[in-house]
Model the fold of this input.
Amino acid sequence: MVITKRGLVLSAAAVVLTAVTLANTGCSSKSLASFRGSPKELVDEVWQIIDKSYVDGTFNQVDWKAVRNDYLNRTYTSDEEAYKAIREMLKKLDDPYTRFMNPEEFKNMQVETSGELIGVGIQLTQDEKTKKLVVISPIEDTPAFTAGILAKDIISKIDGKSTEGMDTNQAVSLIRGQANTEVTLTILRDTKELQFKLKRAKIEIHPVRKSVQKSPIGEIGYIRLNQFSANAASEMRSAIKDLEQKKVTGYILDLRSNPGGLLYGSIEIARMWLKEGTIVSTVDRVGEADKQTANKGEITDKPLVVLVDGGSASASEILSGALQDNKRAVLVGTKTFGKGLVQSVRGVGNGSGLAVTIAKYFTPNGTDINHMGIKPDFVVELTDAQKQELRRDRDKIATAADPQYAKALEVLTKQVTTGKTGNDKAESKPQAASPKPTATQAKPSPTPSKSK
Done:
């Protein structure tokens, strides 16, 4: 599989933090070429795409040809009937990331990837085992973030309607709406049930924030990347160049609560930090591998520490995994989300879309992080009280009141003073955050898999 610049993205608007390929809306063979006819032709188009490209050649131990015969022997009198049949057909794969999007849903996905949406600002996924709707993370400076919704919250009701049996597409359609209207989410957090009344708003996502922070080793560059949207790579390049002109001594890159976005963006950004080495490999169902590497285009070789947590997913894991495995950076925080699947997203029918899991991706050392996540070099857990305090007062992020940032600064200081730029000297024992905050950061934020 070839990863092109317009390819491999993480679908922020549809299901979850999964790396995705944006394919052409047309298909390569005549039998798949842009169906625009009857609803039955749409059903067959979707079946054909799955048949040719789905990552599991056994189709979840399902007789896929028998499925085709079953669904094509039915009568469809409307597009809606075809949509329902397609979703029913795809459920046989038991893969929440292979999904059909009607025209409105597909348009929403494309809008989200561009970095702008109307909603409350959460990234949503469906737990593969429990099928519950789980918040990956709230997006910074949005109604959900301000209200205090957290990563791993379970959405049990939307405006009083139970989400039992509801998929992410259905949930997103209920949560989104016109700007300035309200939606009430009922959240399960551990054993507590909480209600949040949120006002929908237009959300413009600027993925990169930067600042110069004072430290015992002089000024350092702090970069917060909250989503791999279409302009993430260009904003990152500008941020690094600006901070280089300011003569910073090292960098802290904050990927906490970053659920992903455009996969190619993660590759471009990795190349800004790496002179050489593998960035990511993908393997399809026949074992064909594609490898992306650095191209001697690094902007800086100064010491780098990367902050990650359970909300860092997909494209975030590709970037952090590449930097860790190549010993370019030390990772600090908690284990990442664990989403290592590649999806192809393409247009089908008359304006609909289809996301298909076509491959798995691996870090440079060959690690399959799906379900496993990436373990940081230094583990720093935050207590619930510390998380809430950082959310209540975001000015404390990237300060001594942020334990994870404090540890990152400690590690960076050691790198600068010893002249080491990677994790080859990382301590073997993980560090736990003390009850007292001790650091400096710029608030963890957002975004990996269905945004609302």
